[in-house]
Amino acid sequence: MMTIIYAVAVLGGLGLVFGVLLAVAGKVFYVAVDKRAAEVLAVLPGANCGGCGYPGCKPFADALVEGEAPANGCPVGGQELADTLGAMLGIDPGYSRRMTAMVLCQGTVDHCKPKYRYQGIKDCLAASLVADGNKSCHYACLGLGTCVAFCTFDAIRIDTRNQIAVIDPDKCTGCTVCIGRCPRKVLSLQPAGTPVQLLCHAAERGKLVSDNCTVGCVGCDLCDKACKFGAITMVDNLPVIDQEKCVGCMMCAEVCPTTAIWGDFDNRKEAVIEREACIGCGICKKLCQFEAIGGERKQPHVITEACTGCGACVEKCPKKCIHMRVRRHLRDALDNAEARAALAVFGNDRE
């Protein structure tokens, strides 16, 4: 009996000692918790996608409170979330340009030659290990859905007929998870709404590309020569588009012989001059690099169908009488100032 009492007493004493030690350790090693972290975490999307550069939403929330992460760091929440976080933490939300994943390949079954019929595991990595994939282009999308499996936003599907991945830009949050999972590096994060995009990443040239795919970039550099704004640089036989310099004239897409560069031609712009306000100063005419503006000095100027919609004239017009609108007709490259010297006589038919 006494043995039991002693055992209970010893255990009780040990419990008391350890309890005191834990209490002391809690005081000594106490780390203050910023309650704002929980508030920030509550407004985050909870996707835990890692697109912010942190393992999940909680680490990102902690970093925000500690001033180590920007308010616009969450690609899922976009600018609206950045503004909310900025107001909560009293910091500059910054500008959050919406980014979406894009498929840098048009190698459908009609464009990219198949090497064999693949009947293995429906996984792009597995298929790429079998004779380097079933498509003749080493850079082609294999279309087996590895990216689909990892997309938590249902933003990617596989076009089974064309055997290629298709991304819904309205659902894509730009979290980058799919990009890291693609064994062919076909997916790339791009600014949403840009007027031109390169849809190929075959870092080869000429016949090496065209023998495998009819819509691949052949590195001809016609786009570079056509760009009058220094927005294109050729790197590894591929054009790199500087979106900060791109004005949306779409000349690169217009001259591309293989359609490897996509242009949003449905929303291409054109300039229009308000004749009543134009004083004929000639500034717009001198600035136009496409000879799309005609007219005599001190007479209202006119803009022809050669206009590419670059907007340079709008920015420099001292009377602010030039505005942009979505094109109503296809651009006519031959409809330049020289060809339309008589426009001053016939009037501006594009008001």
Q: Main beta sheet: strand number and arrangement?
A: 2 strands, antiparallel
Cα-based radius of gyration, to the nearest Å = 30 Å
Query: What is the SS-derived class?
Result: alpha+beta
Alpha-carbon distance between the two ends:
108 Å
Shape: flat
Element-by-element helix/strand order: HHHHEHHEEHEEHHEEHEEHEEHEH
Question: Strand content of the residues, in percent?
Answer: 5-15%
* Fraction of residues in H or I helices: 25-40%
**Integer average pLDDT:** 88
Number of helices: 13
Order of strands across the main sheet: 1-4
Characterization of the model:
- The protein is an alpha+beta fold.
- It has helices spanning 2-28, 35-43, 57-65, 78-89, 124-128, 146-150, 177-181, 207-210, 222-226, 251-255, 283-287, 312-316, 343-346, and strands at residues 99-103, 156-159, 164-167, 187-191, 196-198, 232-235, 238-241, 261-263, 269-273, 293-294, 302-303, 322-326.
- Strands 1-4 form a two-stranded antiparallel ribbon.
- β6 (232-235) and β7 form a beta hairpin.
- α2 (35-43) crosses α3.
- 35% of the residues are buried.
